Amino acid sequence: MPKPENFESLTPDQKRQARLDAWINHEGIEFKDPGAENSYRERARLFADVFQMKKPARVPVAIATGFAPFHYAGYSCKDAMYDTDKLGKAMKKFHVDFMPDTAASAGLYVPGQVLELLDYKLYHWPGHGVPENTSYQCAEAEFMKADEYGAYMSDPSDYFIRTYLPRVMGALGPWKELPPFTDLLELPFIPWGMLPFGLPHIQETFKKLMKAGELSLEWAGKVAAIDNDIVTSLGLPVYQGGFSKAPYDVIGDTLRGTRAMMLDTFRRKKEIIEAAERIVPFMVRMPYGAYRWGSSPTVFFPLHKGADSFMSPKVFKELYWPSFKAVMLELIKDGMIPFLFVEGSYNQRLDLITDPDIPAGSTIWYFDKTDMKEVKKHLEGWACFSGNFPSSLLKTGTVDQVKEHCTQLLDDLAGNGGYYMVNGAVLDEMNPENLHAYVETVKSYR
User: Fold this and answer.
1) pLDDT digit of tens for each residue in the chain (446 aa)?
2) Closest Cα partner for 432 from 67, 64, 63, 72?
3) Which is nearest to 100 in space by CA: 61, 71, 140, 65?
């Protein structure tokens, strides 16, 4: 289905429906055989139904994959980030053998060579700061200092270019010497503004950027081929689309770090609120970089520092929710579907997130550790919800325990539609028999 010519004049509900229809009808995808095409449509329809709070033909099942495909294939976590041949083989084997109702993208496993070349400091990754068979780990620091909120807010792009990036990427350290590009006003100023780019150590940063770009372009082409093969041969839709973040988390995760952000919550409330508002348009724009017409219209938000364990409901309502809500509402207006991964618990947030300003049927809530019976009480008839199957049970439990837990969740939550099954946290390790039991139990449930 091509994009309607009158798309911009449609209502938000009509835009969302048009985007979902294009995804279900696989605009731009050529399948390897009719069976795969039919399977794709059936599975995409299952998810579209639950996204819209309808009762599907059966409850769809997803697997939130971490590094489990690589352990299962006999590879290391490092292989996932350094060897695209092994990446492709592991992802294909995992999907062929377990056949969930949606495909996980190989793009989740970014190229370690690029991170090394840039000397990226915000994360440790397999073989670089953590063991080769261990998942990556955030290495937070105060990459933005407490007294720099004003500098960031006055010109975020300039702040990133000349302050943040030189700190978080060692390869770009010399960029702190660059003049502001806003100095390039008229003819007399041009050569003086160009002088730094003639310096060998500045030129070296651009050589590294160009190499990183070449490596990333090569990786992206291979990842696209891996994903396309899984989708077109197995008939598995990719239901996770673009990516965005809650503005408070941009500050807390990316710029300030958890400890500093907790202090700022009490010492710099005004700056947090103003900075979060400044970030809203960037987070609205961000998911469209990964979206094309016919792909999934969901926008994935990993929600971090708004969890129960990080802040009180009062602080959540004051500092976290307003700018986050503003991002969601702008995306909803355009027919996109915020897909909200609540890491930790939101047991104290359920009254707050069911905000009357957010239209029914316009969001997806994916929970990690929240009480799902309470989730159903609050969200049923208002939003699609999922999650809270313990990933640990897929590693340490028995087949019977997995089946029993699946069945209990389905009995409690699936009755009226608007629910799908997914494990509550990404899966790095598992027992294959348990994962088979998980998928098969959900698929056979009626």
Assistant:
1) 689 999 999 999 999 999 999 999 987 889 989 999 999 999 999 999 999 999 999 999 999 999 999 999 999 999 999 999 999 999 999 999 999 999 999 999 999 999 999 999 999 999 999 999 999 999 999 999 999 999 999 999 999 999 999 999 999 999 999 999 999 999 999 999 999 999 999 999 999 999 999 999 999 999 999 999 999 999 999 999 999 999 999 999 999 999 999 999 999 999 999 999 999 999 999 999 999 999 999 999 999 999 999 999 999 999 999 999 999 999 999 999 999 999 999 999 999 999 999 999 999 999 999 999 999 999 999 999 999 999 999 999 999 999 999 999 999 999 889 999 999 999 999 999 999 999 999 999 98
2) 72
3) 61
Provide CB contacts within 8 A for 185, sequence distance 6+: none
Token look-up 């010109």 returns 155
Give CA–CA dist 406/435, Å, rounded: 11
Alpha-carbon distance of 416 to 408, in angstroms, equals: 15
**Rounded to whole angstroms, how far apart are CA atoms 230 and 106?**
10
Domain with CATH 3.20.20.210 in the chain: 1-28+240-388
Domain covering 1-28+240-388: architecture: Alpha-Beta Barrel (3.20)
Q: Would the pTM of this model clear 0.85, i.e. be above it?
A: yes
Task: Give dist(CA 421, CA 437) in Å, integer.
Answer: 13
- Evaluated on CA atoms 170, 176, 180, 184, the torsion sign reads negative
CA distances from 100 to 4, 20, 87, 241, 381 (A): 32, 20, 18, 17, 26
Q: What is the CA radius of gyration of the chain?
A: 23
Residue labelled with tokens 């986050």 = 324
Q: How far is 416 from 423, CA to CA, in rounded Å? A: 20
Contacts of 290 (CB under 8 A, 6+ apart): 241, 242, 243
Nearest to 25 by CA among 6, 7, 13, 42: 42
Residue bearing tokens 């070349």:
117
